[in-house]
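Entry 14. Structure prediction run on the chain below.
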Amino acid sequence: MEATTADFTTIKVKTENRIATITLDHPPVNSLNKTLLADLDKALDQIAADKDVRVVVITGSGSHAFCAGADLKEFEGIGPEGAEEMLKFGQSVFNKIASLPQPVIAAVNSLTLGGGNELALSCDMRIASDRARFGQPEVWIGLLPAWGGTQRMTQLLGPAKAKELILTGQMVNAQEAYRIGLINKVVPDGEEVRAAIDIARMIIAKSAPLAVAASKRAINKAMESSSLEEGLTYERKEALKLAGSKDLVEGITAFVEKRQPEFKGE
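Output returned:
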């Protein structure tokens, strides 16, 4: 498939071979301001509507940071009302990443702090360079991680480890982040995007897009369900939706005929 690009002010979006790569491009440390969040919000809407895109990779430009967090200059003198608007917008954008139909893989190339770590947490998987570092240092300036950090980190790591990282603000390196389950894989510096694309290609090559989207929704639901029974009910509903799909017919037929299925997302 021919590569396509889209123009934004603070991000770059390239779509090739059914993979959309979003690159944060706000030097020197890809800090999150209103413009970048708005660009990301718009790009996510476009990607969600594009049936040709099967997987999304998010990474950062430059060698200094994947994303060093929110641009604190925009919070200076903002007041409670302005802060609430900014917090709601950031949560909305990161929720959009989490609920995107396509799997989203963060390719973390370096420093990942504050809102940048919250962005990575909203992705489905995180692949990191061996020189990446992660942290939620908001308490050092009198804030808390309010773009989903307190919630998603607790869901991912459990309350004790989430409290340790958030209350101390300490940074962890890539190896420690992998050990505690914050990231999925550590790769040599410079290989993180390639490694993320390798996973994307595995998904595209063998997995039915409707089944992938349904699986992602069901897993997300598991984090929200008040009981196992509630989660199982939702899982069953998603499976029943797939039972009437053309992709399922194609998948079973291809298995019987011992050939590679040709899924169309129908």
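Residues 4-204 form a domain with the 2-enoyl-CoA Hydratase; Chain A, domain 1 fold (CATH 3.90.226.10).
Filed with the rest of this week's runs.
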